[in-house]
Amino acid sequence: MNFGHFDDANKEYVITTPDTPLPWINYLGSQDFFSLISNTCGGYSFYKDAKLLRITRYRYNNIPVDSNGKYYYIKDGDSIWNPGAMPTRTSLDAYECRHGLGYSRFHGEKNGLAADLLAFVPVDTPCEINKLTLKNNSDAAKEISLFSYVEFCLWNAVDDMTNYQRNLSTGEVEIIGSTIYHKTEYRERRNHYSFFTVNAPVDGFDTSRDDFLGLGRGNNNPIAVEEGKSRNSVASGWYPIASQQINVTLAPGEEKEFVFLLGYCENPKDDKWEAPNVIKKDPAKKIMEKFAASQQVDAAFAQLNAYWDELLSRYHVESQDPHVNRMANIWNQYQCMVTFNMSRSASYYESGTGRGMGFRDSCQDLLGFVHLIPERARERILDIAATQFEDGSAYHQYQPLTKQGNLDIGSGFNDDPLWLIAAVAAYLKETGDYAILDEMVAFDCHMEKAATLFEHLRRSFEYSRTHLGPHKLPLIGRADWNDCLNLNCFSNEPGESFQTTGPSEGPVAESVFIAGMYVKYGNEFAEICRRVGKEKEAEIAQKAVDEMYQAVLDAGWDGEWFLRAYDAASQKVGSHECEEGQIFIEPQGFCIIAGIGVKEGLAKKALDSVKERLDTKYGIMLHQPAYTRYYLNLGEISSYPPGYKENAGIFCHNNPWISIAETVIGRGNRAFEIYKKTCPSYIENISEIHRTEPYVYSQMIAGRDAARHGEAKNSWLTGTAAWTFVNLSQAILGVQPTYDGLSIDPCIPEGFGDFTLTRRFRGATYYFDVKNPNNVVKGVAYLEVDGKQVKGNVVPVEDGKKEYHVTVHMA
Q: What CATH superfamily classification does 735-810 receive?
């Protein structure tokens, strides 16, 4: 069942009913100011950090769901409605929401009156613009009242939700003309404030939520709107809001436009708030003047569209499959950019108050956006590395505003150090910028402990090399990629347990998955050493990697697939010997990506076992059989009900690993089959089952054992976006950056046909024309570069050259 459709020409998803299975959202913003907005105008805004600089308030787990946002109430006689349907839920004569790249459009009609709302954040200004157009399509004049509504958050989103004994006395606002300033705690400890304004005279206002809504009422039926008269309330403590009333007269066929702005401002340090008036140098005035007229707004909107057009032009494919074109050219890359901005901090599943930026998450996300914004990828790498400890481990999370590590989480996730090598290797291949390795980077955010980025990579590798268990496999620590696989807990007596943290404290758990990472990214570290002339160090690293390769073959193979791990008592996890959880997806993907078992003939066995034991029509499950009871030695993974999340759910994040692994052994049909099962565009027609947005990837889908098999959760902010783009662009379509240039080696399904691909790389544009006359799945006979045949499948970089025309002959 569909609740909308793709408009590829305009790069939009068109939602045709407000009654989607879940709120279907979009992200506005590309630099520092961001808003989340749903298909019914729910959501919230913040500046840089969704926890520490939250501008508007949002309530998760609200009833009705998603019932706080930026709203515009239209009172037309006895009818009261909103362009996006919420919160009044008045039945509309017409409704449409168009989510585009960095903007959303809403169209509502009721009783001959049409309302069009455009919401976006301009490229270079810390504000959200809402342009509302009202048009009278009836034969009679209309006298209507328009009410805006925004509820302010008292900056720190956690404190805002918990510290009521204080917060209910701190709210401060100021009203000057059509502008409402939110200046809570400004004079006490802040130099910033927000404002909400409209480019028209107002007929009333409210800044007190209680006065606007009325006693015992919700935002679905505010008394001020119902009675058609604002209270002109001035909030003092309690719950500050911003609402303006504008009375509008529309002749038949007439339309009027209004520009509303929600902005964030900081004052120069030498300025003070001149209570009760805002300072004379009010920076908000510049923003208001910049977007005072519709023409200025239209120009800013055109600039936003040009920004995304240019960005997405850096990778573009034209194939016979519209789903591939749509996802590769628009939605997959767009989602990668959102994960760059948000990591896992702010979505409709992440409240913006906890996780912040993830060390592992951000390193993986970089794989999907480094080709789009290499200069900002560079900055992100240095931010991530600065949260590393001197021993090579790292804070698992850090706050985006302060760049400080999250003390509540700390370290102990032993896959984290290797992801830094993965990110830097991807950046070096994309840019050739080896100078980044000489950048001085702090340890634990303390510059007095700084070392070069290369030294950070060395310590990442050394941490993994020196933290091995009894099977010579890497110690898992608190967990590896699977945060819920906590194997360092075991019991001596019933009811007693303890957790070990290091090799000197008794039996310790080991991860075959990290072993696969160690081989994959240890090889990358060795190659980086060679590239910068550190041959001896490369030899040492390569020897350690080769030893790990053998350790996986000796202790990590279970006969038909790779083991997942050994627990703290050296018992196998992910083995046919286990009662439950006999086979896991992660090592089958990553060990083969690393090349382990390929020449030995083990890779095909492992991938055949995945298909036989883990595959479903909605994707590949994390493990099987699901855990039906709690296992102390496994930890949180067995606390979920069967089929959900880490307990045998379908993690879309690691489905691409299996697809990539299939391309390693040349099975293009199977690789593409896996890709299609979790790709939103292919499964749009089962949106009533899938439930999350049909234009972006979700983190997980309920597995075969779940009550709601096929239902997705945790959309938008997931490593699925980056890994799926890597899978499609590099493994399936086959254009992959290397240290020496772009390589091309497609692994496509039968019948895929010829395709063309445009790729920006190191300041030049590459035009690939892939010819496959014999319908082969994999294999490049030869390349022609600018009409000349070349050996191999790597297009070398030539200094100063700006265009490469490459014909790829598959055979």
A: Maltose phosphorylase, domain 3 (2.60.420.10)
